[in-house]
Amino acid sequence: MRIVSLIASATEIVCALGASDQLVGRSHECDYPPQIMHLPVCTEIKLNAKASSREINDQVLRIVSDGLSVYRVKPEMLQQLNPDMIITQTQCEVCAVSEKDVVAAVCQLIDRQPRIVSLKPDALADIWSDIRSVADALKISDRAEKLVSELQARMSVISKAASRLSEKPRVAYIEWVDPLMAGGNWMPELVGMAGGINLFGVAGKHSPWLKWEDVVAANPDIIFVAPCGYTIARTRQDMPLLMKKPEWKALSAVKNNCVYLADGNQYFNRPGPRVVESLEILAEVLHPHAFQFGHEGKGWERYDTN
Questions:
Q1: Model-level pTM greater than 0.90?
Q2: Pairing between β-strand 170-176 and β-strand 181-182 as defined by DSSP bridges
Q3: CATH tag, 3-120
Q4: Domain boundaries in the chain?
């Protein structure tokens, strides 16, 4: 089987299922595990990723309003790689190459019509379903059941331990800083499993826009910032946008030095096997005395508010 994965989480799923040797191509965002980095890149971004968060958002809105994906498929590369299967997603055209763009590119192929597997991760349960869908397509369904069971077991241990803790901090999960957006989809579920109370966003629903006045009114115990597609270093650059708001210093999370930055690109925004590490990070942040998985400094850091 010759597989081209056009979404980072799908690449991780294929590798976690033990089928990395069947990957022949990847998207420009697929960067884990490291052994896939040599694979040819089959997509490119249409916007300026080095722009400010506000400018990136405006670019995305313009492109999507025209009915287009923010990423472009390279049909000539697909033709060269001649895949049997292409994996993409339909959940969000901002997160990966859209299914219609893949179909358009595939129509330009001459030699064969590869199977297109489209993933749709709206909630945590969908991540498990997507793992099974990929495995079914690869005819290795037994591996999916083993992998899903292992991942769920790890998460269950954390969730059960967190449920026994008396303290339940109220969490404002920020998925984009300018304009403000809260975490949706599987994020509220992870916050709850980590022993927190999620203030914004609904499980299984797309990430909602967020008014700063609502953040101020909620006065969260913890502010957790993990913008979609951003590293910790890139997220740090956006923090002055929050700090300059007049109510910032009055927030409980700020006064108690409970503002945290996390790698949204590698963890929280990738609906794949490392959703377990995302939960571990949240558990460490919310309950540092109860959980220590060693992610501090790599997956997350405390943002000094003093």
A1: yes
A2: antiparallel
A3: 3.40.50.1980
A4: 3-120, 166-302
Would the CATH topology of 3-120 be identical to that of 166-302?
yes
pLDDT tens sequence across 220-233: 999 999 998 899 99
- What does the alpha-carbon distance between residue 162 and residue 168 come to, in Å, rounded to a whole number? 9
Q: Reply yes or no on whether the pLDDT at 150 is more than 80.
A: yes
The fold of 166-302 is: Rossmann fold (3.40.50)
**H-helix segments, the chain:** 8-16, 53-65, 75-81, 99-106, 124-137, 141-163, 187-193, 212-218, 232-243, 252-255, 275-286
d(CA 147, CA 44): 31
The CB-based long-range contact list for 234-242 (8 Å cut-off, 24+ gap) reads 235/177, 235/261, 235/262, 235/264, 236/261, 236/303, 238/53, 238/177, 238/178, 239/177, 239/303, 241/53, 241/177, 241/178, 242/177
Contact 196, 257 (CB under 8 A): no
Neighbour count for residue 16 (Cβ, 10 Å): 21
Q: Do residues 25 and 5 touch, judged by C-beta distance below 8 A?
A: yes
Name the β-bridge partners of 264: none
* 272-294 pLDDT tens trace: 999 999 999 999 999 999 999 99
Per-residue pLDDT tens over the stretch 224-263: 999 988 999 999 999 999 999 989 999 999 999 999 999 9
Question: From CA 119, how far away is CA 271, in angstroms rounded?
Answer: 10
* pLDDT number for residue 187: 97
Alpha carbons 130 and 128: distance in angstroms, whole number: 5
